[in-house]
Amino acid sequence: ARISLLVGNFQRAEYAWWRAHNLRPELAEYSVNLGVAMAAQQRFSEAEKVYQAVLSINPLHFNALLQLGICWLLMKNYGNAKHILLRAFMLNANDSSLLRHLALVELTLGDKPQAAYYFKKLLELTPDDEAARVDYALVLLDRSEFVLLEQERKLLGELANPSERTVHYLDVIDNVLRAREVH
Q1: Structural contact between residues 165 and 131, judged by C-beta atoms closer than 8 angstroms
Q2: pLDDT tens per residue, range 56-76
Q3: Do 156 and 166 meet the contact criterion of CB atoms below 8 Å apart?
Q4: Alpha-carbon distance values, 97 to 9, 117, 138, 178, 179 (Å)
Q5: For residues 156 and 173, what is the distance between their CA atoms, to the nearest angstrom?
Q6: How many CB atoms lie within 10 A of CB 13?
Q7: How would you write 88-106 as a 3-class SS string?
Q8: Under a CB-based contact definition with an 8 Å cutoff, are residues 132 and 117 in contact?
Q9: Model's pTM, two decimal places?
Q10: What is the secondary structure of 102-131 as a DSSP string?
Q11: Distance (Å, rounded) from C-alpha 87 to C-alpha 69?
Q12: What would the mean pLDDT of 38-49 be, rounded to a whole number?
């Protein structure tokens, strides 16, 4: 099931997780992974029901909370996504996937200071996360926090093999910082 999920064979992963769940129904993680396989096929309503079933048995199941939050984010149910992800945050404030998705929810809801907080916390845990560093820099740019932006720009500029996305946004950041120096 794990291998099928990793290689993108979501139907096979779903079938394998379904079999594992039926063999060991007491293992909630099998149910959560079944939901992940469903969500990977964009069957979000079905995945939501699986996560809700796990949470009805164990309301503090971290991965079920996280996956339900991600599912609601993908369903564009941002208020519920934030609420459930914050419940997961109370259980484990140091999970990188949780922090990334909380930041994305906050960005979507327009709370840029809170999004910056989660990106910064994520970067404290995973300082080599290039995508998170770019996202954090873009939030800083949007908030006109130029001192912090210059620090992030320096770190991004030191990357050995930056992605195309990073190179693109480095140019944007450089242009803004240069224009700022002129004025």
Answers
A1: yes
A2: 999 999 999 999 999 999 999
A3: yes
A4: 22, 15, 19, 34, 35
A5: 11
A6: 24
A7: HHHHCCCCHHHHHHHHHHH
A8: no
A9: 0.90
A10: HHHHHHHHT-HHHHHHHHHHHHHH-TT-HH
A11: 10
A12: 97
